[in-house]
Every structure is written in structure tokens, then in C-alpha cells.
Amino acid sequence: MTVFVIGAAGGLGQLVVRALRERDVEVAVLARDPERVPAGPGVRVVAGDLSDPASVRAAAEGCASLFLSASCDVECQSAAVDVAADVGARLVKMSPWQAAVREDSPAPGARHHWITERYLAKRDLPYTILSPNYPMQELIRHYAPEVRRRGVLVDPAGGRGVSVVDEHDVAEVAARVLVEPGHEGRTYALTGPAAPTFAELAELLAGLMSVQVSASELAGPELAAWLAREHRPWEAELDALFGQFREGAGEAVTEDVHRVTGHEPRPVADFLKAHLHHFLPDSEG
């Protein structure tokens, strides 16, 4: 079988491609910039984007499943839904942060996912929605620099817990759902096994590195400055998301990773141990 992947240029998309190839599944990848997507045995890269649905439809012809992980507007995501329906493919759609995916969400991207999910439900095709919580990998991308420089772990969640999840677990779930039967019509909320606060994460890091690490809750102008520095151009989106985390929207813990994969999700302590070099003082990551 062949799986068509939209959104393989990002870190998660590449992990999904790798997980599929480990199962000897052929992969066709849609890429606006093919040079950003590493090709290889069993991976066919198709130049194009969803602004030209006809060309995407032709490239997806014959694919059994379509994976959609794209940060784009409703029109773009709906075009991918139409492509899957037209070629008779099963659709697996990423809708991150399910607690935020609602009609009145202050996060524009979350509203786009909500609208697309409503559109998807009206189409005649098998589909599954994957809704992972905040990725553990974000701790490296956006939080490690302050830990290295000042021994400070930024806390944008106002002291509330967040059930962070490893993107490798998310990718394994995606690969299984794309090739296995029995997941149609389901929404899987993917989380880690616990919902630690950032203060608890700081304590974990301090113990692992034998140095002082403290959590610093950010709000107002300080939070805005950090978002502009670490999350551009998504600072407005993340500001809205963290606002919902401060209300407890990130605290839910589910069994969905285990339900699909048969194993427990990775604990954040194991993740931090494996990537501790990114957080060590004076380290460049």
C-alpha cells in the first residue's frame, strides 16, 4: 500500500514518514519545496501544494490513506479532505490540542481545525482525528535556551499541569492508524502518562543536572516578549493556547497512545534524560 503525506517538511511529518517506512509502507510526500523533504527508498516526493487541488489529486491517486498535518487555513485543509474523498483514501487528520479545538477558541488555528472537522464529518470517507497535546520536543526548541543561560524554565501555563507527549509516540500512532483497520470515526487525544507542572519539570531537570533550575511564570509583557522571541510568527496562536493551559485545558491524561500502540507513552523524565545535553549550562544544544 501507499500512504500520501501532506506536511512532511515538519519534524512530526518526517517522523511519520520514518515510522511508515519501518513498516515497509510506500510513501508519497507532497512538498511545496521538495528539497526540504529527504527522499529515499520507498519515498516519492511530489512538488506542489493544496492551492492546486487538481495536481494534488493526481499525485494521490491510488494511495490507500492520506495523512494531513499542515498548518494552513480552512480552505487548504478542506481541499485535502476533498482530495482524500475523490481518490477514495482514508484520511488521518492532525488536530493538535483537542481541548482548544472549539468554535469559540481564541486560537485561530484551533478554530480552523474545528471548522475542518465539521466539514470532514459531512464527507463520505473514512477518517480518524489525532489530537496530541503539547510536544515534549518543544521543551528543547523553545525552553532549553533559558535553562542553559540562566537556570530558568519558563512557565507559560500559570502553574497548571500539561500532559506533554513525545512526538515519536504520536508518529507511531499515526503510522498504525494509517495502515491498520478499526480506527475509522475515532478521535484519539494523545498525551503523555502524566501532566507535570513546569515547576515539576524544573525540579526534574535540577535533579538530573545537579544544578539549580527554577520555574518562572510569565504573564503580560514578559510573556509577550518571550513569545515574540521564541514562537514567531505563531506568537498570537501560542498566547491563546497558553491562556487555555492556564485554565487547566492541558491537564487531561488519556490512554489513547497505549490503546493504539499497545505500549505506554514515554514519560517526560525519560525524554529529559535522553536529551539532557540540550539543557546543560553553557551548552549550545
For the biggest β-sheet, the strand order reads 3-2-1-4-5-6-8
Q: Name the shape in a single word.
A: globular
Main beta sheet: strand number and arrangement? 7 strands, parallel
Class per helix and strand makeup? alpha/beta
Number of domains: 2
CATH superfamily of the largest domain: NAD(P)-binding Rossmann-like Domain
Describe this structure in words.
The structure is a single chain. By secondary structure, the chain is of the alpha/beta class. The protein folds into 2 domains: 2-131 and 167-190, NAD(P)-binding Rossmann-like Domain (Rossmann fold, 3-Layer(aba) Sandwich), CATH 3.40.50; 137-163 and 192-252 and 262-278, UDP-galactose 4-epimerase, domain 1. It has 11 helices and 9 strands. It has helices at 11-22, 53-60, 74-87, 108-122, 137-150, 167-179, 198-209, 220-230, 235-245, 256-261, 268-274; strands at 2-6, 26-31, 43-47, 65-68, 90-94, 127-132, 152-155, 187-190, 214-217. A 7-stranded parallel sheet has the order 3-2-1-4-5-6-8, with helices on both faces. Helix 1 (11-22) crosses helix 6, helix 2 runs parallel beside helix 3 and helix 7 packs across helix 11 (268-274). The chain starts with a strand and ends in an 11-residue tail after the last helix. The mean pLDDT is 92.
